[in-house]
Request: fold
Amino acid sequence: MAGFGCEPHGKATPFAWMGIPAALVALVANLRLLVARRPGTPLRALAVVAITAALRSRGIRLRPDLRRAVIEAMELGALLNDRFDGDVVDPVALREQVTWFARSPHREVVWCYAKRLRRYERSRPNHGEPIAVVKLYRETVNRLSLALLWALASGTQLSAAELETRQAEDLRLLFNLVMLTQVMDDVLDAGHDRTLNLPSFATGPSATAASLHAVVSSYAAAAPLRFDGNFCLRLALGIVAICTRGMIAIRSAGGLFQTGS
Reply:
């Protein structure tokens, strides 16, 4: 792994003190990102923390230039997402991101990601599709995005990174976290998504409070709290699941599913 730009750092133990040291080191190393202009939001900053911690648990230190690539990829992904959704996108900002990666050693990985994302988005389900169809679409796109970030951080190819997000337990937990935040985002943006006829967990005839709680359970129940090397991720997953359920309850009480507001 060192040949890909990641520096070996120590040797992981089976439980690694429940992942707490790696999480604390990753948080301290990325603390300034919480208030920096980029990655722009606390959620993205925490994603960098999680990826850094996952590397630390493997005895790898994330180099600053690779951290920058991960952050730039988040920005590019957000711009592409807005573009596919039909939102207004700053053409200068998008051109700057494309140019940055065109001049970087990561361009092949990012172009592969962009081509696959375009293919997925062009075949996205229609507004009002069953929630199972939306779930498959959301998982496909979000797994691809997580794989891109992991490929950049770990110096692997996109296909290998995607496979690891399916096989490595910590990355599977991180993916479930991403999906829970996607559910929450869909609930918060239900009005916007309905106006633009976008596929969403929270819109369509099959979207109910019960169906959304079932989706939350499908991600949270897969990771029961255990005192192992992924304790921090399991704890975070449980907390985010509670917050997501709370948001569903609040929006449901406000008439989200009855009035389509």
Notes: The CA atoms of residues 148 and 160 lie 10 Å apart.
